[in-house]
Write a structure and sequence with these properties.
Layout: H1 17-47, H2 51-81, H3 92-120, H4 123-151
Helix pairs in contact: 1-2, 1-4, 2-3, 3-4
Length: 160
């Protein structure tokens, strides 16, 4: 018996399968970022008496959010370079790249600096770097709103 499921690789660009796939990728990415930044991290600090433990746990969740974002961004950007998919909106690639890249830069640059400051007992520097990292993740959350906004626009407005 022959399968009736379409071969996604054989579908022409613009068919329903690719937007559905990318919509799922965007939903998983944005949802995980918003959940970790808006719910998990604040809840850890509110519920745990040991702030160092809350910080370590939150850091692990931010690592996870970064990995999910880099993977999702890479998938979306890779699809655009195959000429099989075009990101919605005029600045789709830039928006996806920044939204995925900012947390990665935070993890690669700010996290080690925060660890150095904590190890040295320089809590003023640690606090400044922590605030900067929080701002980077909040910008990424706003970028995720813009990505979702672009991915959920009516088809008639995708060229705008």
């Amino acid at each position: 018996m022959k399968s009736t499921a379409p071969d996604i690789a054989a579908l022409p660009a613009g068919t329903a399968a690719m937007p559905r796939f990318t919509g799922i990728v965007v939903a998983l990415w944005a949802g995980s970022l918003w959940t970790i930044c808006g719910l998990v991290a604040p809840t850890l600090f509110a519920m745990l008496d040991d702030r160092a433990l809350a910080g370590r746990l939150a850091g692990r969740f931010f690592d996870l959010a970064t990995l999910i974002g880099v993977a999702a961004g890479a998938i979306l950007l890779a699809l655009t370079f195959t000429a099989r998919y075009v990101l919605p909106g005029r600045y789709g690639r830039l928006l996806v790249g920044l939204t995925a890249g900012l947390p990665a830069l935070s993890e690669l640059i700010l996290s080690p600096l925060m660890e150095q400051a904590r190890a040295a007992g320089d809590m003023a520097r640690f606090g400044m770097l922590h605030g900067l990292a929080a701002a980077v993740f909040m910008i990424a959350c706003a970028g995720a709103v813009a990505v979702v906004w672009n991915f959920t626009r009516p088809a008639s407005s995708l060229d705008a």
